[in-house]
Design a protein that fits this description.
The chain is mostly beta strands. Helices cover 6% and strands 40% of the residues. β3 and β4 form a beta hairpin. The radius of gyration is 27 Å and the shape is globular.
Length: 653
């Protein structure tokens, strides 16, 4: 370990080792892990970090690092600084206080602690058995945390909307970093108090009118502006300038997260607060599988994840901390699955398996031969329907991206029963292998050549957009200059607040009309089909038109409108062909769809939906035709859909 530390310092000389506490001779390399317990608290100290937890509740009350007595906000109660929580059955909130404390492992190299509780029917808490673990290792300025949650079959039915970890930091942590390009000075919690801000139309968003830092005046603060897709959310955190210290959340694997690799979720936000979201309805809504039924046993390990701390000698040089945090993240990814976790519910590498194969796409209207599924997202998730991985929460998921020839390897897979799912950027729809895949320890399964036949009924007459499950290619308007977040001026513009209101300004009298062959979807197709704001709290359904020409109408079969949605929020899409006043639409969704709130929460997508709409030839005519798209529900500004891709096909041969 001493050699490893010296190598680390030679690779990243700008990161200086934090000052050690007085546990021994610092010249002898990394110090041994020590543990003390007194006055209803336990302290783990490895000479780099000193972690204090309450016993037996298991709350983080203090983290000492680099001469800072406590990086957590000491103004808060001991149960409100670092904790796990669960939101269940709607509005019930449980911080998972535990009743049992046990030392699982204690030696010079590592301490692992268990904080657990067993549910009984006399409790008014979430009906789960919980075992929360904390690991501190020799030579690392960080804390591994994970939790084993279990609902035996006899426990009552419960709906679990959220599981997360929360750390609330000292207010001098004021600089956030969630990616190379998403970094900035942040407001403080007081800036969201009355008198310092104006609450905007969506409750989480405020306009800073009198912030403690005058340079932030006139900016919008909204926690959803710092969301990421899970596949990109491996490391995020906060930094302080004096002393230059970083506090990072590192997630080396997505296997325990929900909803697949492109589900979006919160990272860090004003507080300063650092999160790890394990289960949530964000950007998905109630379509997520949230109900854990009586009679159905369930058990899942969330984590481990690493809370990592670092420092550097020069004040204000945040990039040094960020680069070191990314280096540590890559080290954690390489080390996954960890071999030092004590729980038998976490299988190490030699108890896992893998599958591999090649995926091609067969679309005769694109190519006479199958084409490689380059960049396809291929994953294992619990058995279910086509695309059901988007809403799965109870099991584990393992995803990869195919190479340029569609080759894929999904490794480090927990033993279990799975379906294989996939989707291909640039191709509509979802793929699922019909066979059930059983992973045992040591499995090495060759699936061979797999062929995806995407939805297709005939040759393409015209198309709008790119089938990539987002609305990012469409027109995203300039933000209001009075409602800016400067982080998203040059990129990620869809994260700006209030863009939905721009629709009525851009189309003040008539709704959007897109003429095939003339219009450009990057300029003429608004990113979200929203309601029209009439003022005074009144909203009206908007009807968009697609105008196109047919030289002849074929009567050899039905035409097809392939309609892919990137998001739906309390919406009811309707389609009419050539008659906008038809009392009944030619197509409408079965009831209201979606609650992903991607419009209000600045996401460019939520859950993916796909509809293949048959169009009888008698609905069309030679010459000019018009498709009318209506989003029929219109009580708020946040209702609507985002389109991913639209394609019109003539009858197949």
């Amino acid at each position: 370990m001493a050699v490893e530390l010296l190598l680390l310092l030679s690779v990243c000389p700008e990161i200086t080792p934090p000052r050690r506490t007085n546990l021994g001779d610092a010249t002898q390399g990394p110090l041994a892990v020590q543990l003390t317990k007194e006055n209803e608290q336990v302290v783990i100290d490895n000479g780099l970090v000193r972690v204090t937890l309450s016993t037996p509740d298991g709350y983080f009350t203090g983290i000492q690092y680099n001469g800072v007595e406590n990086v957590l906000d000491g103004r808060l109660d001991g149960n409100d600084r670092g904790y796990w929580d669960v939101v269940w059955n709607g509005a019930n909130f449980d911080k998972l206080a535990t009743s049992n404390f046990k030392i699982v492992t204690l030696n010079d190299d590592q301490a692992e602690l268990s904080f657990s509780k067993t549910w009984t029917s006399s409790n008014s808490i979430v009906p789960l058995n919980v075992d929360r673990r904390v690991i501190v290792r020799r030579g690392l300025s960080g804390i591994y945390i994970y939790s084993i949650m279990e609902k035996p079959a006899e426990f009552p039915t419960v709906e679990i909307d959220q599981i997360r970890v929360v750390f609330k930091l000292q207010k001098w942590f004021n600089y956030i970093a969630i990616s190379n390009s998403q970094q900035r000075i942040m407001p403080v919690a007081e800036d969201r108090d009355p008198g310092r801000c104006e609450v905007l139309g969506y409750k989480e968003a405020v306009l800073l009118t009198n912030p403690t830092n005058p340079s932030l005046r006139g900016q919008v603060d909204d926690k959803y502006q710092y969301s990421l897709e899970d596949k990109d959310n491996k490391v995020h955190g906060w930094m302080a300038a004096k002393p230059l210290v970083g506090f990072w959340m590192i997630t080396p694997s997505d296997e325990f997260r929900v909803g697949g690799p492109i589900k979006q979720d919160l990272t860090s936000h004003t507080g300063p607060i650092n999160l790890n979201m394990f289960v949530s309805t964000h950007y998905a809504g109630i379509d997520m599988d949230l109900e854990y039924k009586q009679g159905e046993p369930w058990k899942k390990v969330f984590g481990p994840v690493l809370v990592y701390l670092n420092s550097a000698p020069s004040e204000g040089n945040y990039n040094k901390l960020w680069e070191d945090a990314k280096r540590q993240m890559l080290e954690e990814v390489r080390s996954w699955p960890y071999n030092f976790v004590a729980s038998p519910d976490f299988p190490p590498a030699d108890q896992r398996g893998q599958v591999f194969g090649q995926l091609v796409v067969a679309d005769g209207c694109v190519s006479n031969k199958p084409i490689f599924a380059k960049g396809a997202y291929v994953g294992l998730a619990a058995p279910g329907n086509l695309g059901s991985w988007q809403t799965q929460t109870k099991g584990y998921q393992f995803w990869t991206q195919a190479d340029r020839k569609g080759g894929f390897l999904i490794n480090k897979v927990r033993p279990g029963i799975y379906n294989l799912y996939a989707w291909v950027p640039g191709v509509v729809g979802d793929y699922k292998l019909d066979a059930v895949i059983t992973i045992n320890p040591g499995s090495n399964i060759n699936l061979g050549l797999l062929t995806y036949n995407p939805p297709r009924n005939g040759p393409t007459l015209w198309e709008i957009g790119i089938p990539d499950r987002t609305a990012g290619e469409f027109f995203i308007p300039d933000p209001y200059p009075t409602l800016l977040n400067p982080l998203y001026i040059d990129h990620g513009r869809y994260r700006q607040y209030g863009l939905w209101e721009r629709y009525a300004e851009i189309y003040p009298h008539n709704d959007l009309v897109f003429t095939v062959g003339v219009s450009n979807y990057a300029r003429d197709w608004f990113y979200a089909h929203v309601t029209r704001n009439l003022g005074d709290g009144d909203y009206k359904a908007a009807t968009w038109q697609i105008v196109f020409q047919l030289q002849n109408v074929l009567h050899t079969g039905n035409y097809t409108l392939q309609l892919a949605l990137a998001s739906a929020s309390y919406a009811k899409p309707q389609v009419r062909f050539n008659d906008p006043n038809a009392p009944e639409p030619d197509f409408e969704t079965p009831g209201r769809i979606g609650s992903d709130n991607a419009i209000a929460r600045h996401g460019i997508h939520g859950l993916y939906r796909f509809y293949s709409i048959q169009v009888p030839s008698n609905k069309l005519r030679k010459g000019s035709n018009t498709i009318y798209l209506t989003q029929a529900l219109s009580t708020t500004p946040f209702q609507g859909v985002m389109y991913d891709y639209i394609r019109f096909e003539e009858p197949g041969q």
